[in-house]
Write a structure and sequence with these properties.
Strand content: 35-45%
Bound molecules: copper (II) ion
Radius of gyration: 22 Å
Helix content: under 10%
Shape: globular
Number of strands: 31
Distance between the termini: 57 Å
């Protein structure tokens, strides 16, 4: 079935209202339910999961420093929407199928409210995972203005829960940002980009076997997922009517595996103003944006003087990235139609400078850790990935000290790029450098084969997710805090994360 492009308007998620709010704290309740929603007008309504009856969930908007409590409530049915593989870590047959836990990606948050994968809970909190601590999570929002997102993080079934629809935006705002006079209000729009496939009846399609099926298993995890349509904010190939003026878009790759290399078919420059963890020091004009799963980028697109023009946002990233072929390529993301007359003079600006960022340098680091990204094969002949050749359940090996600065070397021995995400903290990308993988595998030493590659202009600033490219060492630097306790770091390709490419770590006093 081939769906027409640009027949449905881009939905913009509503802003969630708190249950109550006073000058000290704000309290939200967010229910997860199953419901039907139209994802494309030529498609029957699709059964999805969402927060507060919508996919994506409503946007949670808070002020920097605001103390927020959220009760995440599982009101989902007992039966999962998608096929579960009971052989992967933490998803065994003796557990309830429908388990959830919510992580606010990029949030600086206490350990017990971070949404640890083993802190899952079922409908009515009837059953909870071994690391479950509390029903109401606390967020201090001690961060500058930033585009975060909340999504499911349940051990062994994150890929299925997010694919079913459990994701939404979480924005922190502050006075500094407001003073910059960026496009705001209805000219500040979040875009959650995801790929999905459908059965002809409109239901979500997610494979229950890899291309080479595992005969012993009714359902097997797949190594990667590539859908044949692209959705933005829950609509397939939507369009957005815009005025001839500047807009701010908060781009998020919310896909399971797919990378996007985003361009505008008008060839115009995109002004990047923010990275994963907040505003950049100054905007950069770029022609293309590379987004791995979970990466965000804040941009300004200027439609001034483009009245009557239709502009398509395109993608040309191969799948898997970077060495996949074009068989899985979906080239179209969405369309902008400069069709609305200018409602008032556009006084917003693309600032020259935004926020100074203290650069972390190597001399500040008190510890260096070397991490490998490895390929492996399981008892069914399936390929799976590991960090440091260790499984999820292996004892904790990473225990940074509160307030200390560390450099992590991400030594990628695989042939794919993996978006590595570390909870709790933001980091800076130091550099990348090609190295000899064979020599590393034989002798365990890094032998560099080329010059140091500085981070892309797009990556300058603070990030929480970084592309660890194949046959390169990617170096990042970060300061651990302000909380102690148990967190995780992992690959954000959900099919990898669900099958051992995730490790716990602990910040100690
Ligand atoms: Cu991965």
């Amino acid at each position: 079935m081939i769906l027409s492009k640009f027949v449905d308007e881009l939905p913009i998620p509503s802003i969630l209202k708190p249950r109550w709010k006073d000058s000290f704290q704000t309290y939200y309740e967010v229910k997860m339910t199953e419901f039907k929603q139209s994802l494309h007008s030529e498609l029957n309504d699709t059964t999805v999961w969402g927060y507060e009856g919508s996919y994506p969930g409503p946007t949670i908007e808070v002020e920097s420093g605001e103390r927020v409590y959220i009760k995440w409530i599982n009101n989902l049915p007992d039966k999962h929407l998608l096929p579960i593989d009971y052989t992967v870590h933490g998803a065994h047959r003796d557990l309830p199928d429908v388990r959830t836990v919510v992580h606010v990606h990029g949030a600086s948050v206490e350990s017990d409210s971070d949404g640890y994968p083993d802190a899952w809970f079922t409908n009515g909190f009837a059953k909870v995972g071994p690391k479950f601590k509390k029903e109401v999570y606390q967020y201090d929002n001690n961060q500058r203005s930033v585009t975060l997102w909340y999504h499911d993080h349940t051990i062994g079934i994150t890929r299925l829960n997010i694919y079913a629809g459990l994701a939404g935006f979480y924005l922190i705002r502050d006075q500094k940002e407001r003073l910059l006079n960026l496009p705001s209000g209805k000219y500040d729009i979040p875009l959650m980009i995801q790929d999905r496939s459908f059965h002809t009846d409109g239901s979500l399609y997610y494979p229950n076997q890899p291309p080479k099926p595992i005969k012993e298993l009714k359902t097997s995890i797949i190594h990667e997922f590539f859908g044949n349509t692209i959705l933005v904010n829950g609509k397939v190939w939507p369009y957005l009517n815009v005025e001839p003026r500047k807009y701010r878009f908060r781009l998020l790759n919310g896909s399971n595996t797919r990378f996007y290399r985003i361009k505008l078919d008008s060839g115009q420059i995109i002004y990047q103003i923010g990275t994963d963890s907040g505003l950049k020091e100054y905007p950069v004009g770029i022609k293309e944006i590379l987004l791995a799963p979970a990466e965000r980028t804040d941009v300004i697109i200027d439609f001034t003087n483009l009245e009557g023009k239709n502009i398509i946002m395109t993608n040309d990233a191969t799948s898997p990235f970077p060495d996949g072929d074009s068989a899985n390529l979906v080239k179209t993301i969405m369309q902008f139609r400069v069709s609305i007359p200018l409602s008032s003079i556009d006084t917003s600006v693309i600032p020259q400078d935004m926020e100074p960022i203290q650069k972390l340098n190597e001399q500040m680091a008190s510890n260096v850790r070397y991490h490998t990204l490895n390929d492996n094969t399981d008892q069914y002949g399936r390929e799976f990935m590991l960090l440091d050749n260790k499984r999820w359940a292996a004892p904790i090996t990473e225990n940074p000290k509160l307030g200390s600065t560390e450099i992590w070397y991400l030594i990628n021995l695989t042939t794919d790029s993996h978006p590595i995400h570390i909870h709790l903290i933001g980091f800076q990308v130091l550099d990348r450098r090609p190295f000899d993988v064979d020599k590393y595998n034989k002798e365990g030493v890094i032998h560099y084969t080329g010059p140091i590659i500085p981070p892309d202009p797009q990556e300058q600033g603070e990030k929480d997710t970084v592309r660890a490219n194949p046959e390169q060492v990617t170096r990042i630097i970060m300061k651990f805090g302000p909380y102690t306790g148990l967190y995780v770091w992992h690959c954000h390709i959900l099919e990898h994360e669900d099958y051992e490419m995730m490790r716990p770590y602990i910040v100690i006093r």
